[in-house]
């Protein structure tokens, strides 16, 4: 029998810790779709495989014929968590935002790139929770706001920062937060609040109406962010599809690495035989932030066959690794975490417009 998983600090079980935490998301639940990998019938170079979404197409015979017995993997559809701010971004805010509100936050300041999914998620969820979001975006204002940039503008108070100013993120964030707080307000870093684990008295949340400005660093990569991802692991481990004694191989695209660490930590603390692979966004500096020929077409190819929309920089890399793993490892169940990011396609369509034209139909 496995020993009861416990955290070193305090001796509380992980289950108790998660159940005692206030969450932003009403439920940790996420849809899980099963994808079958088939030989491609397409004459287009680079289309080595075809795909079938067995979860959504079973009513149309999707589980019969070639799909029977073919390699398959599972996709955790966190891209469906929220209509505007989805994927791993709300997972990382899941425990963080309630904590900041408990500490009396009136305003939250954060930063990101012009098409930052993190910045947009902070703007949306803060607005939903009655906290004023202030977003510092790197670069210049777009002639035509679109994608995550548009969402940030609609829900948050956006200020654009030059690349030279943005290079000194901590100084930039603190200076902006100080201006918002004014002479009577206070400024705190979210990481300091988490480290101190303090609780504010109820009467200090209103006080004399002064502003309490909390700074969340780019990407929200904090200890509190890990809890939201661990909550997802606990949910998945309770599904019949992924029994606690099952061998599961999780694949996730990796930027800051927070989501991958949270998944691995959750698996270890819950005593699961799960392995986590974080797929780096680029293997070279020349590749980082760029879309290669054929990748947008591949995203279209997958969308048309499965109803799942990927982006060419992040989730496509995880999808391709999941395909490779399920074809090589028949013992473990391969699970890809869909980290969202699809609104970023709007920005890419402006940058790579020739690749977003009428093309081959599957």
From TrEMBL:
One term of GO molecular function: lyase activity
Modified-residue entries (N6-(pyridoxal phosphate)lysine), positions: 89
TM regions (residue ranges): none
Cofactor(s) needed by this chain: pyridoxal 5'-phosphate
Domain of life of the native organism: Eukaryota
Active-site residues from the entry: 116 (nucleophile)
InterPro entries the UniProt entry points to: ACCD_DCysDesulf, TrpB-like_PALP_sf
UniProt entry keywords in alphabetical sequence: Pyridoxal phosphate
Keyword check for Transcription: no
Family designation: Belongs to the ACC deaminase/D-cysteine desulfhydrase family.
Protein name: Tryptophan synthase beta chain-like PALP domain-containing protein
Organism the protein comes from: Urochloa decumbens
């Amino acid at each position: 029998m496995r020993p009861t998983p416990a955290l070193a600090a305090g001796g509380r079980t992980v289950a108790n810790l998660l159940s005692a935490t206030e969450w932003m998301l009403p439920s940790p639940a996420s849809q899980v779709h099963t994808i079958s990998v088939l030989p491609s019938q397409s004459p287009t170079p680079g289309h080595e495989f075809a795909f079938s979404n067995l979860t959504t197409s079973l009513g149309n015979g999707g589980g019969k014929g070639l799909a029977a017995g073919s390699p398959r993997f599972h996709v955790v559809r966190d891209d469906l968590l929220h209509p505007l701010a989805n994927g791993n971004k709300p997972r990382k805010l899941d425990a963080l935002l309630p904590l900041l509100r408990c500490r009396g936050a009136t305003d939250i300041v954060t930063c990101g790139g012009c098409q930052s999914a993190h910045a947009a998620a902070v703007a949306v969820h803060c607005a939903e929770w009655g906290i004023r979001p202030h977003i510092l975006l790197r670069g210049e204002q777009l002639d035509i706001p679109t994608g995550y940039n548009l969402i940030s503008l609609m829900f948050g108070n956006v200020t654009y920062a030059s690349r030279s100013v943005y290079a000194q993120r901590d100084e930039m964030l603190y200076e902006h937060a100080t201006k918002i707080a004014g002479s009577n307000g206070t400024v705190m870093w979210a990481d300091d609040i988490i480290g101190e684990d303090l609780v504010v008295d109820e009467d200090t949340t209103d006080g004399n109406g002064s502003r309490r400005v909390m700074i969340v660093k780019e990407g929200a990569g904090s200890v509190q962010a890990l809890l939201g991802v661990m909550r997802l692991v606990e949910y998945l481990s309770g599904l019949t599809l992924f029994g606690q004694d099952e061998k599961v191989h999780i694949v996730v695209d990796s930027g800051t690495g927070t989501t991958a660490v949270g998944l691995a930590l959750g698996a270890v603390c819950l005593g699961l035989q799960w392995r986590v692979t974080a797929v780096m966004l680029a293997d070279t500096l020349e590749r980082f932030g760029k879309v290669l020929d054929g990748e947008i077409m591949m995203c279209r190819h997958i969308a048309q066959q499965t109803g799942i929309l990927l982006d060419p920089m992040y989730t496509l890399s995880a999808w391709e690794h999941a395909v490779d793993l399920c074809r090589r490892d028949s013992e473990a169940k391969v699970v890809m975490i869909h980290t969202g990011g699809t609104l970023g396609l709007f920005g890419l369509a402006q940058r790579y417009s020739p690749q977003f034209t009428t093309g081959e139909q599957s």
